[in-house]
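Q: For a teaching handout, I want to show students what a protein-ligand complex looks like in token form. Below are the inputs, and the small molecule is cytidine-5'-monophosphate. Please produce the holo structure.
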Amino acid sequence: MSQAGGGRRAGITVRAPGKVNLALSVSPRRPDGYHELTTVFLAVGLHDVVRLAPAPRLTVTVRGPGAADIPAGDGNLAARAVRLIARAAGVEPSVAVHIDKRIPVAGGMAGGSADAAAALVGCDALCGLGLSREELLLLAAELGSDVGFPLYGGVALGTGRGELLTPLEISDAGVFHWVFAVSPHGLATPAIFQEYDRLRRTRLADGERPTQERVAEVTDALNSGDAALLAAAVKDVNDLQEAALSLRPELADTLRLGPEHGALAGLVSGSGPTCAFLTESARAAATLATALSATGCYRDVLVTAGPANGCTAAPDWT
Ligand code: C5P
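A: Here is the structure, written as tokens, with cytidine-5'-monophosphate included.
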């Protein structure tokens, strides 16, 4: 394929966003081992950049913070995504995938899922498959509960095990400034759900507020564009937070530190251990990030805004 200027398309670059869950309501484990969820996904402007190019065979290389912790070979979710879409389309998985990590690894921000979503989008474009979003979503759901959301980005309601998505239209007023404190060591999602089960058995579920009420408060606050309202709505809204704090008690110190330096709210992002802080402005986010960095306790402190767009693909020209 040639560009108007005469260059050749050498590959595809896809930018895939990370996410934070602004509501995460978890029900008891289902017979298939998963938990039924109701969640509000918010895409944020932290992106992994995934480059795909034709190659003699499927390879995956990863660069960036935490790259050494990402499984190579068959265990790599982006490699599985390439194989799955190639099989579905009846083509060879002859693609070199290179991932530049920016989303924390094993951090509760669905970085691995973002890479898999990017691989689906990239392969679709590279091989000219022309799959619909619905077809891509079905493949995404086979790969993992969180793989579908980066295809949409923005804000979406997630149900089922998280893979059933309803995009939510949010007014342009709502751009929110976030700081993410990245722990030096990641947490495995299955371990958090196991701890959630253990804790749930030891306490009564009485007094829990109905999920729909909490979700409506979050979406109303997002629409209002009012960070203080959103801060109130996301308080204690993550059912996995207690499990993350149980396995990593030091996260409680991080969550305390945020408001001491101007955060309006702090929560564990998804299954953790990354902590997400909502601030009232870009300036407040920068001030908080400086204070968190100065503690020397974090692998990274990241400043960004959301909602952000879903996966975007662009050709690489030689
Ligand atoms: O769907 P995914 O492969 O990302 O899930 C990883 C693990 O997280 C599952 O094997 C399960 O242990 C846990 N999980 C869960 N309930 C969900 C999503 C994930 O228990 N809704």
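A: Two things your students might notice: Residues 111-126 form the longest helix (16 residues). The chain has two domains: 9-169, 176-306.
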